[in-house]
Write a structure and sequence with these properties.
single chain, alpha/beta, Rossmann fold, eight-stranded mixed beta sheet, binds adenosine-5'-triphosphate, binds magnesium ion
Length: 269
């Protein structure tokens, strides 16, 4: 399935929570890569009860500069699921936006490395939380490599939807200019509001692949930690049920992009 990038236009619609919900609920082996240039949140949020040494994206980027990505990667991960070791991993992000300057020159090699993870044994998909498009420089090489680029939108009010119009337009333009075409773009809609899904899709000219309900109780544990997942966890169930559509969309896009001779190969890009 490869690289799924999640971004937002601005504000905090729930990118990190959605990325974590998918990582915790999908069947495939998954690495949640915290690539938000404004900083990662999982260590200070969901995993805040744990003592974790300073590992993650920053040491990995340093290794990329030394051409030692493959040797370093496994040591930069935190396992999220004691019941299924090695199945759901997180690569913690930077803890200070100033560190994004160190990462920036390495996005290209990091993106290529992430793209290759699905071909390893065992293979991994990468869900990359790339944060807000409005703050600093987004990790464009990673966005251009994405098999699926999800714009996360909170649908509560017009105020939360409106910024996505310009963001969708910019993403379409950037992807087209870089020869990718806008085919990888889709929406992750969070919460409920007065606007119908179809109207939002028509306004943003994008299909919806993930739709998550308002579930503050589960979301709070995922975003802030300090509690146990309780109740019926509508959020995680909805995230789990989105996996087949996501896999299907990626498979269809790959089949469409593949040269005729290699059509049908699951690894064709
Ligand atoms: N499906 C949901 N239902 C209810 N609350 C949610 C949901 N998803 C996220 N939230 C809440 O919204 C807030 C923002 O979530 P989160 O940190 O994931 O957003 P973000 O887009 O990653 O923000 P930032 O750009 O600041 O990193 C948190 O308080 C979180 O608990
Ligand atoms: Mg976030």
């Amino acid at each position: 399935m490869a690289i799924i990038v999640m971004v937002s236009a601005k504000g905090s619609p729930g990118v990190t929570t959605t990325a974590l919900a998918c990582t915790l609920s999908w069947n495939g082996r998954t690495v949640l890569a915290e690539c938000d240039p404004a900083g990662g949140s999982v260590l200070s949020g969901y995993l805040s009860g744990l003592e974790i040494p300073p590992i993650g994206l920053l040491p990995l980027a340093a290794a990329a500069l030394r051409d030692q990505l493959a040797d370093t990667f496994a040591h930069q991960l935190v396992d999220l699921d004691a019941n299924r070791p090695g199945h759901r991993l997180v690569l913690p992000g930077i803890n200070d936006p100033i560190q994004s300057g160190t990462i920036r020159p390495t996005w290209e090699s990091l993106a290529a490395f992430f793209a290759d993870l699905e071909r390893r044994e065992p293979g991994y998909d990468v869900i990359a939380d790339c944060g807000r498009l409005s703050t600093g420089a987004p990790p464009w090489p990673l966005l251009f490599r994405a098999d699926l680029l999800l714009l996360v939108v909170r649908v509560e009010t017009l105020r939360t939807i409106a910024p996505a119009v310009g963001a969708a337009e910019m993403l379409r333009r950037e992807l087209t200019q870089h020869g990718q075409g806008p085919g990888a773009l889709a929406l992750a809609l969070i919460g409920e509001g007065p606007y119908r899904r179809r109207d939002i899709e028509q306004r943003l000219l994008l299909p919806t692949l993930i739709e998550l309900p308002d579930d503050p109780r589960t979301a709070e544990v995922l975003s802030d930690g300090g509690g146990r997942l309780r109740g019926n966890q509508r959020l995680l169930r909805a995230a789990a049920s989105a996996e087949p559509a996501v896999r299907d969309a990626i498979a269809r896009r790959r089949a469409h992009l593949a040269p005729t001779s290699s059509r049908g190969s699951s690894h064709a890009r």
